[in-house]
């Protein structure tokens, strides 16, 4: 590992300004091949960790969750690594090209995401020689475009069941939502014809019902406003499924001085999903809202409610969420609507139902804590997690 670090240091110290165009392109090709080889080793190692249940060492149930929590990978990237590691066991020719640096992680994932356990089982039932396809796909990966490989793999999938029943179109529905640093949200969705028709009909009804004179919005803006309005209508109706005993609602946290003030107050309020907004926007939302008062101490911690009760009240839950925000178990960070309020000292053992005796834990880690693991809040306000043997779970340090 030290030799790998030294090699990367050497590359990073090289002055690129002295390279010719050809040398720059050659250097890029060498680096991509090296990255491919590293990606292959990451997938192989992750698969070994999965088979040996290594994530249990840090109190996590899967390699995917460990990659997300400890290495801060996106959910999609963690899933790709795990999926790739599993697939390489069944496609040795593709695995060899990957290990040599000639095949990319994205190319391997074209196969891994399409030819899974079910497809391999169907191929075995039909006496299909996967080894031949493995060699063909490996050859295409190093000699043809990415799209050519994708088409070839898709054709294999279709050939497994040429006369079968029409596939369920809803299985290809996808919706991804990304929140950016400024709190703005972008997304993408893919729907089948029927699902798309339903969504367009709902949006169109709102667009056509809101066409004021002199409206200069583009059609894209009208659609976006209609989508927000559709969500607003459903939230106000109050018949959406509950989240941890509460109806879904927009949560805004803002200081009382900012709430009653008159200035814009940029960056002084926050939403339940982590976006930072101005006090002016918070006041706008508070015009028609339920306002909850949480008194904060001088150290920024919500004060105790001053009463003991066995069942956590909605008020106490709000205080715990305001302090912890997510599951406090090391490497987790599950959203608060997945979480329980855990008694650090169980009420049956004399522990109070209070803020100081509470921690936000997702269902999985609530179970872990009741089976030997321990979470503790130090005097500085930082949550620490300990294994049953007393050692602390520490997140991997950020690379510098």
UniProtKB/TrEMBL annotation:
InterPro entries: DUF222, HNH, HNH_nuc. It holds the Pfam family DUF222. Residues 315-367 form the HNH nuclease domain. Belongs to the Rv1128c/1148c/1588c/1702c/1945/3466 family. This is DUF222 domain-containing protein. It comes from Klenkia terrae.
